[in-house]
Specification:
The structure is a single chain. The chain is of the alpha+beta class and 219 residues long. It has a single domain (4-213), classed as Class II aldolase/adducin N-terminal domain (L-fuculose-1-phosphate Aldolase), CATH 3.40.225.10. Helix content is 40%, strand content 13%. It is built from seven helices and seven strands. The protein has helices at 4-20, 77-86, 99-107, 117-122, 138-143, 167-190, 198-213, and strands spanning 30-34, 40-42, 58-60, 66-68, 92-96, 152-155, 159-164. A seven-stranded antiparallel β-sheet has the order 4-3-2-1-5-7-6, sandwiched between helices. Helix 3 packs across helix 6 (167-190). The protein is globular and about 50 Å long. The protein starts with a helix and ends in a 6-residue tail after the last helix.
């Protein structure tokens, strides 16, 4: 079983990766994970993700009440808590302003869901949500139509959110979507984006459902 200290260390590691990959600047972005006791570990407001220490992370109840740590929970805590309420299977959330994915979100262009087999298999469709002022209850509302059936979301004029059954899965999905957004942008510069045949999309969708039914890998 993955312990709370393991999860803390994993979030700190991912914060560093986010910064090193250029997915965040300054205090952008936020990370969270559901702990074994049901509380939520989340990055504090105003913290630079590339400089996090394990003790910087704060713990909140599912209703948002602070129970451990110094500082305020992320201003996007409501978004994270909404995901955990609606998706009991989800154990981690990653939000950043990854440049290529965020460029699609800022342009109001949805990423196609039928181009790369790896994206169909490991992520699924990536909906574009309606604009919602960051840090408000409008953000969870913008996720409402999609959260039950999707694992990645382009937040209009805001950034990228990915979720997973482990911290590692949420992060790998984040990397995958950003890499995918870059490939789609480059392909469009070359002239066109070809789609996977429909029968193979159905095959990959079924494989994704089977993976979702299997026990998750360790965090």
């Amino acid at each position: 079983m993955t312990t709370a200290p393991d999860i803390r260390n994993r979030l700190v590691e991912i914060g560093r990766r986010m910064y090193e990959r250029g997915f965040v600047a300054g205090s952008d972005g936020n990370l969270s994970a559901r702990l074994p006791d049901g509380t939520i570990l989340i990055t504090p407001s105003g913290a630079a993700k590339g400089e996090l220490a394990s003790e910087d992370l704060v713990v909140v109840e599912p209703d948002g009440r602070l129970v451990a740590g110094v500082g305020k929970p992320s201003s996007e805590a409501a978004m994270h808590l909404f995901v955990y309420r609606r998706r009991p299977d989800i154990m981690a959330c990653v939000h950043s302003h990854a440049p290529h994915a965020t460029a699609f979100a800022a342009a109001g262009i949805q990423l196609p869901d039928s181009v790369l087999p790896e994206v169909v298999l490991f992520v699924g469709g990536i909906p574009l949500t309606a604009y919602a002022p960051p840090g408000t209850e409008a953000v969870p509302k913008s996720l409402e139509p999609f959260v039950t059936d999707h694992n990645a979301f382009l937040l209009c004029n805001h950034g990228l959110l990915t979720i997973g059954r482990t911290v590692r899965q949420a992060w790998y999905r984040h990397e995958t979507v950003e890499h995918y957004a870059r490939i789609v942008a480059l392909a469009r510069q070359l002239g066109s984006v070809e789609s996977i045949p429909a029968d193979d999309i159905r095959r990959l969708d079924e494989m994704r459902r089977q993976l979702a039914a299997a026990p998750p890998e360790p965090s």
